[in-house]
Every structure is written in C-alpha cells, then in structure tokens.
Design goal:
Layout lengths: L2 H6 L14 H10 L19 E5 L3 E8 L2 E9 L2 E4 L7 E6 L2 E8 L2 E10 L16 E5 L2 E5 L22 E2 L20 E5 L8 E3 L14 H7 L2 E7 L9 E7 L17 E8 L4 E5 L2 H6 L6 E3 L3 E10 L17 H5 L4 E7 L3 E12 L10
Antiparallel strand pairs: 1-2, 2-3, 3-4, 5-6, 6-7, 8-9, 10-20, 11-14, 12-13, 13-20, 14-19, 15-18, 15-20, 16-17, 16-19
C-alpha cells in the first residue's frame, strides 16, 4: 500500500494520533526554537499548554500549538498551499476491517502499512513489505553487532506485528530500511551496516550520497536508501599498510532474536538473488560470526560477481559460494554448510586503490524475483 493510499484511509485512524512531536517540529526547533525558549533549565516553561503561535518568513507561515511544554507544528502555508500534519512521526495505530487488523506507523507525515494484516484466516504473503522501523548495525572485521539507542518517541513493537516466515525480497525503490529475512521471528535483523579494512591496516571508506543517521542510530542508512532507491555510494579504497588489496562493503544480519545477532539456518532460501551495479567486480560473502570466521582464517565462502556499470541481476545457488583458493586450513565450509549457520550477508568490494561507484537495488532468496536491472 503506498503513501497516497494511506492518506486516503486516514479518516479511519484515531484522532488522538494527530497530536505530539513530529520530525517537522524537531527541525523547526533546531532553527527557531531558541526564540520561544524562556530559560535554559530543564524545568523552564517554554509555552503555556494549549497556546498557539506562528512563525513567518518570506515564503511560509507556520502554525504551532503548545503541547506538553513544547511547540508542536500543526500546519504550514507556503505560497498559498497548506500542508497539514497527518500524524506524529513513529506513532503507531491499527485499522480493523472484518477479520483482519492492519498495523501502521507514521513515516514522513504519512501512515505506512507495517508488514501484512493479521487475520483469523490465512493470507497469501506478498514478496515485499513497507515496514518502517529504526535501527542499524556496525561491523568488526567480518562479524557485526546491532547498535541500539533509546528514544522518547513511540517505536513499533515487533511483537505486535505478524511477519512472513520466508525471506521477502528487498527492493530498494520501496524505501524500507530493513531486509525481512523471515529468520528472526519478529526481531530486528536486516538493517544495513557497512564495514571496511581499518582493523587490518587499510584506509578504505565509503563515501555516501546523503548524510547517515536517524534518531535511533548515527549510521542508519535510511536517507541513503531514499536518495538512491537502494544502497549506493562510492567505495574509496586505500591499501595503507596491508599486503593485500583493500576492501569495503555493506551487509545485513539475518537473525537478531534478542540483544545481539546470532546464526540461523537459511538453507531453505536455496541461495540468493541480487540486482546491483558496480564499477569494480564485487562479491557476495556469507558472514559466519567472529568465532567461526576466526577458526577458518576469515576465508568465508563467497560468490564472485561481475563488474556492471549499467546494472544487472544474478541468481546464486548455495553451491556457488566457495572458500577462496588461497585458503589451506583444515576447517572446510562450503556454501551449503555456511547457509545452515548463516550470520550475515555481505556485499564486498575488494580491489586496487581507487574509487568505485556501486549500488544494490534488490536482494532476496534464490529465484526470489529480483528485477533484471536497477531502477
């Protein structure tokens, strides 16, 4: 269901959800809030409950209401056009229609559907979801850990939303910051993280086309996904003191059942499909967690991808993932075994020093409907 469809259904939603702080208010406070503040102490009175005020500049008039000692944006008129506040950013609500209950979250001043409706009769699950939630991950060498931060704003409770038990192909153009793997049983896996070669002595980094971060995590990729219709950037590879080619990459965890990522059995996926573009030949690598990866000398099973500036799609069975040829260790792990204890999926660019543009447009299970090219 798109944003326009959601606006058409807004009359069904509780009126109470129309009140509270929004990101618009936060942005306004950053620029103009000091003009209304009456003191720097935490208990200072900013405004009188229920009072109204307005701010005007050359183009716009913005109306505010005092709620809980905070000026909250109500609507603004710019060049004769009124933009009314629809809902509070990250607020949640439900709509019950017959035997089904749909869950929604407020995102960019519009109600967005979360996953599939919860019904008393089975529903056919779709291949994608518009779930909006906030979190992110960071990576150490080739394993990753979820970065969590608290917020006073309303968050979506994963326990109240029914999700598919299968891997839903992630399409970047749909704008979701999360890949739904179907392996975390309502957890918070699937948020994109990035990694680099700094711990190995390299100086590589990813140059992003939009600022990272949201109110929950400073490295969240929401803005990048919205800007690119996917995950895109420029890999700036710098060898530093390493004796091998430098690298950077992005990836996502497949299972976060509690406070930290863990392995899960992804054998049923059959493999992976991916739609991408890259100025340098990348690879899809199967993350196995720090302990396992250390035991195999970080020789993770991977599948090579070809360079493609225009964009292409690739289907990879688990048997296509193999450990690198340089590995001579005793512990052998092929693609099928790695899939049965999968920790993360990583898109890795490793090449000579230089700058290489890349974009991930879609990723999903084998034959999961990844589009033939990027949008």
């Amino acid at each position: 269901m798109g944003v326009c469809d959601m606006k058409n259904r807004i009359l069904l939603l509780p009126i109470a959800a129309m009140w509270g702080c929004t990101d618009y208010a936060g942005q306004w406070e950053d620029s103009y809030g000091v003009a209304f503040a009456q003191g720097s102490a935490p208990t200072a009175q900013v405004c009188a409950e229920g009072a109204t005020t307005a701010f005007s500049d050359d183009k716009c008039v913005t109306d505010f209401l005092c709620v809980n000692n905070t000026w909250v944006l109500q609507n603004y008129v710019c060049n004769g056009s009124v933009q009314q506040k629809i809902c509070d950013e990250n607020a949640t609500t439900t709509v019950t229609d017959g035997a089904c209950t749909s869950y929604f979250v407020c995102f960019n001043n519009a109600w967005v559907l979360i996953g599939q409706p919860v019904c008393t009769v089975p529903l056919v699950q779709s291949s994608s979801s518009n779930m909006v939630a906030k979190s992110s991950s960071s990576i150490k060498r080739s394993s990753s850990s979820v970065a969590r931060s608290s917020s006073s704003k309303t968050k979506v409770s994963s326990s109240s939303v029914k999700r598919s038990d299968s891997f839903q192909t992630w399409i970047g153009a749909e704008g979701s910051p999360q890949v739904y793997t179907g392996l975390d049983k309502g957890g918070s896996s699937g948020y994109w993280f990035d990694f680099n070669d700094h711990e190995d002595g390299g100086g590589s980094m990813i140059e992003w086309p939009a600022p990272l971060g949201n109110e929950y995590a400073e490295d969240a990729k929401d803005s990048v996904i919205n800007f690119c219709n996917g995950i895109c950037g420029t890999a700036i590879l710098e060898k530093g003191v390493m004796t091998y080619n430098p690298f950077v990459g992005v990836g996502f965890n497949v299972n976060v059942p509690s406070a930290s990522p863990s392995a899960a059995d992804a054998s049923s996926w059959g493999g992976l499909c991916i739609t991408y573009s890259s100025d340098s030949a990348p690879a899809l690598e199967l993350g196995l967690g720090e302990d396992v990866e250390r035991s195999i000398g970080y020789a993770n099973p991977y599948a090579p991808l070809s360079k493609s500036s225009a964009g292409t799609m690739k289907n990879l069975a688990w048997s296509d993932f193999k450990q690198p040829s340089w590995y001579r260790g005793d512990v052998k792990i092929d693609g099928k075994k790695a899939a049965s204890q999968l920790f993360s999926v990583k898109f890795k660019i490793q090449s000579s020093t230089g700058k290489y543009k890349f974009k991930i447009c879609a990723i999903g299970p084998y034959n999961g409907g990844c589009p033939e090219t990027c949008i």
